[in-house]
Amino acid sequence: MSHGEMTPTRSGAAHALACWAAALDPGAEELALADRSLVDTVAVGLAAHREPVIGITADLPEEARWAFACHILDFDDLHMPSTSHISTVCVPVALALGGGARTYLAGAGVMARLGIALGWPHYSAGWHATTTCGALGAAAGAAVALGLDAGGIARAMALAVPAAGGVQRSFGTDGKPLQVGFATHAGVRAARLAAAGASADPRAVDDWLALLGGSPDRLTIDGPTVPGGLAVKLHPCCYALQRPIGAAATLRPAVPDPAAIRRIVVRTPRATVQPLIHHRPDTGLQAKFSLEYAVSAALLDEHVGFAAFTDDAVHRPPVRRLVDLVETELTDGGDHLLAGEVAVEAHTDTEVHRAALAYPPGSPQHPPLDGAFAGKVADCLAGLPVTAADIAWDRAADLLRAHLGV
């Protein structure tokens, strides 16, 4: 969808994006994406009611608590071109302000475009793009929900710049979803301040882009609302693990007795393991960012779901044995989490079983089958008096309040 011929380098990034967001008139395909993102994100957020850690967010603002809940399981969708979790930020903003699908899409489009302008070097340097881009995306979406014009949206984005941080060292701890919650709230706060008349220089966004290694020259305004689409996760862990799990799972029928495995080799481009910082995890949270654990669990478990990412699951003797057998061979290059392909080998005393995968199920190139998506939602809502049909823009906020105690 085209929204004009705005040239970011002449008008400034914030002004160009604000004009785009103010003029956004989503079509049927974009509204369908928003509806799927709502169901996916809210279902994952509701599943977090089982997490005792939810209680630590009691004093946070509503949108921050929801963003935390929707991200704590690391089961929310991902925008591959920006390497950011768009919906865990933009859905809570839309729900908290009653903005609906257009609010979500405006925030998502701004967040995606800023992430693309920052590029892979930003993520590979250790920044958490969900929070750096998320604060400004949340501000844009919230400003649209509050009815601000393009000038107000640009000021809101500029006011969110001081909160646009977050690093990958927090991965595997509560700090990761908390910094997402902080960014989401910062965007809403910035939009409310802009609505109240706070002044700001929108060119602060250009300076922010440059300081974080990005460039307004890489900012594209035309094209789909969410360029490249969104990847749906089918396993509750980092997106960088979806592909290795998919490849390793295909080997399970060939090696029905994991005790027979003597060696496991994983070959993949170096870029694809950027966020996988825990090699011998001790907790379920750390396991969500462990290549060695994910491959081992996929060789052991029929389904790598919620049960695979508990502290007890991580300490199972069979999985600990396999984790110690995993060798990684990283090739140079790659500029995103699905660069090249992943190859997994399981060696026994007599055979070597191999599998390779380029795109995991759930990626835009390999969209999830309706049954797989429905199964994910059902797993998330198990034990709750809620179905996917109950999740709609006019009811989702009440569902989250009721089940997360906001």
Automatic annotation (TrEMBL):
UniProt domain MmgE/PrpD N-terminal: residue ranges: 68-204
Pfam families assigned: MmgE_PrpD_C, MmgE_PrpD_N
Domain MmgE/PrpD C-terminal: 235-384
Gene3D superfamilies: 2-methylcitrate dehydratase PrpD
Top-level taxon of origin: Bacteria
Family: Belongs to the PrpD family.
Name of this chain's protein: MmgE/PrpD family protein
